[in-house]
Amino acid sequence: MSHNLNIDKLDLQIISEMMSNAEISYADLGKKLFVSGGTIHVRMKKLQELGIVKGTRLHVDLKMIGYDVIAFIGIFLEKSSLYDTVAKELRKMPEIVRLNYTTGSYSMFAEIICKDITNLRRVLHDELQKIKGIERTETFISLEESFTRTINVVE
Fold first, then answer.
1. Which band of pLDDT confidence, cut at 50, 70 and 90, is reported for residue 42?
2. Are 14 and 33 in contact (CB under 8 A)?
3. For residues 89, 92, 95 and 99, what is the CA-based torsion angle, rounded to 10 degrees?
4. Given a cut of 80, is residue 33 above it in pLDDT?
């Protein structure tokens, strides 16, 4: 645990509860953790100021609103020193939802969400090919997402 950030067990419990249900009210969360809603508010503000908690997100079933294709792209760079430049270009593509700098075969690994295969083809063939520094890519289409979850931060 990072003691230099001054995080205690209550902070971790708050983080854990909020990760599983970000819609819970501070009052209800306080009742659950045996502290006041005001304490939860103060702790959340501290966690946000420290940059540990970065806003809340709405979990949306993207398939239900027409985003049918999830794919992963392994990206080979001409030189690993081009990572920052290429990452900056990839950030401009709204279909890319996650990008990691990785060890192993690929220099970068991206997750991409598209409406359909035509949309995916356009991104791969038209947009990715234009980016200087990308040697080649390898695409993996997700047939099904079996599960997605957060980790348990409370021991």
1. very high
2. yes
3. 50
4. yes
Q: Which residues of 13-23 are buried (b: 16+ CB within 10 A; e: fewer)?
A: bbbebbeeeee
Contacts of 43 (CB under 8 A, 6+ apart): 10, 11, 14
pTM of the predicted model as reported, rounded to 2 decimal places: 0.78
Q: What is the pLDDT of residues 46-70, one digit of tens each?
A: 999 999 998 877 778 888 898 999 9
Domains of the chain: 3-49 (1.10.10.10), 62-141 (3.30.70.920)
Single-letter residue type at 36: S
Crossing angle of the two packed helices 37-49 and 9-20, in degrees rounded to 10: 90
Burial 87-114 (b: 16+ CB within 10 A, else e): bebbeeeebbeebeeeeeebbbbbbbbb
Work out the percent of the chain whose per-residue pLDDT is above 90: 73
Evaluate if residue 30 carries a pLDDT over 90: yes
For the sheet with 134-141, list strands across it: 96-101, 108-114, 69-77, 134-141
User: Look-up: residue for tokens 């979990």?
Assistant: 59
